[in-house]
């Protein structure tokens, strides 16, 4: 009996050690990808920062909530080029240790649109970006890496099928507005988000991701039904909420769908 317990204990220790080793950093693989293998003067180009997470790891959405640091991209571009803000795919609920946060456990591609000038004098163009991220599991592993893409200048784009497939997947994950979804907001310390639409399900699989910190990832979200059949999401205002606000921007998860919303507070 003692020998059996000893064998089980050793097996548990070995398994735990192997698991712990798997949760050491960096916890991901990253790559800078482009939908085209070339640059065409005046033609916008979609660039993706692709993140493959190892099992058990996550990175962070643009507003992680209570803990976490979002991925950032700082571009160093030739004269005349401009870069858009990051377009973020919909976030997930995850945990850093015991703390709830908003991030990504799945593979994800952050999208940026680069716009070249109408005239390019050189035969090639080098795009540079400094990327910062924090990847977490049992512990957190902040990291930094510089990337370069040198592309020829051509009259027409040269598509990259593999990169385009990843970018198309990410594009479908960008939350969009839904004109059939009617949202209204009221309250100060207790925020009440009212949803009225035939699209609102009777189930309670609804969650709000705040993109400006008015609601934190550790705040409870209570769901109730109005007398008119609407769904009401009641959320305490975060202590880290911005002091000045006129609306409630964020991403609303309804079942398996994600919508971009920004209802305005009543004036006065």
Please provide a brief summary of the model.
With 268 residues, the protein is mostly beta strands.
Question: What's the layout of helices and strands?
Answer:
Layout (H helix, E strand, L loop, with lengths): L1 H21 L5 E7 L10 E9 L5 E7 L6 E5 L5 E2 L8 E5 L2 E6 L3 E8 L8 E13 L3 E13 L8 H12 L9 E5 L3 E7 L9 E5 L11 E4 L5 E6 L13 E5 L2 E5 L7
Antiparallel strand pairs: 1-2, 2-8, 3-7, 4-9, 5-8, 6-7, 9-10, 11-12, 12-15, 13-16, 14-15, 16-17
Structure report:
The protein is mainly β and 268 residues long. The chain has 2 domains: 25-172, Sandwich (Immunoglobulin-like); 182-261, Sandwich (Immunoglobulin-like). The protein is built from 2 helices and 17 strands. Strands 1-2-8-5 form a 4-stranded antiparallel sheet. The chain is globular. Residues 1-21 have low confidence and may be disordered.
Distance between the termini: 74 Å
Number of strand elements: 17
CATH topology description of the largest domain: Immunoglobulin-like
* CATH uppermost class of the largest domain: Mainly Beta
Q: What CATH architecture label of the largest domain applies?
A: Sandwich
How many helix segments? 2
Helix content: 10-25%
Q: What is the N-to-C order of secondary-structure elements (H for helix, E for strand)?
A: HEEEEEEEEEEHEEEEEEE
Number of domains: 2
């Amino acid at each position: 009996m003692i020998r059996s317990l000893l064998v089980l204990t050793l097996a548990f220790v070995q398994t735990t050690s192997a698991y712990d080793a798997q949760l050491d950093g960096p916890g991901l693989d990253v790559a800078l990808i482009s939908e085209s293998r070339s640059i065409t003067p005046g033609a916008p180009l979609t660039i993706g920062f692709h993140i493959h997470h190892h099992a058990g790891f996550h990175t962070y959405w643009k507003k992680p909530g209570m803990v976490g640091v979002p991925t950032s991209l700082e571009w160093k571009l030739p004269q005349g080029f401009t870069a858009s803000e990051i377009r973020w795919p919909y976030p997930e609920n995850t945990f850093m240790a015991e703390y709830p946060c908003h991030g990504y456990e799945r593979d994800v591609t952050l999208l940026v649109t680069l716009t070249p000038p109408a005239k390019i004098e050189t035969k090639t163009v080098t795009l540079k970006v400094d990327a910062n991220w924090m990847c977490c599991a049992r512990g957190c592993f902040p990291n930094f890496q510089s990337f370069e893409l040198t592309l020829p200048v051509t009259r027409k784009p040269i598509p990259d099928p593999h990169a385009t497939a990843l970018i198309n997947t990410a594009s479908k994950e960008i939350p969009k507005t839904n004109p059939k979804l009617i949202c209204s907001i009221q309250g100060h310390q207790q925020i009440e988000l009212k949803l009225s639409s035939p699209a609102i399900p009777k189930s309670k699989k609804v969650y709000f991701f705040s993109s400006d910190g008015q609601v934190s990832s550790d705040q409870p979200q209570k769901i109730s039904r109005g007398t008119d059949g609407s769904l009401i999401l009641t959320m305490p205002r975060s202590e880290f909420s911005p002091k000045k606000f006129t609306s409630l921007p964020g991403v609303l998860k309804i079942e398996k769908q994600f919508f971009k919303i920004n209802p305005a507070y009543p004036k006065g």
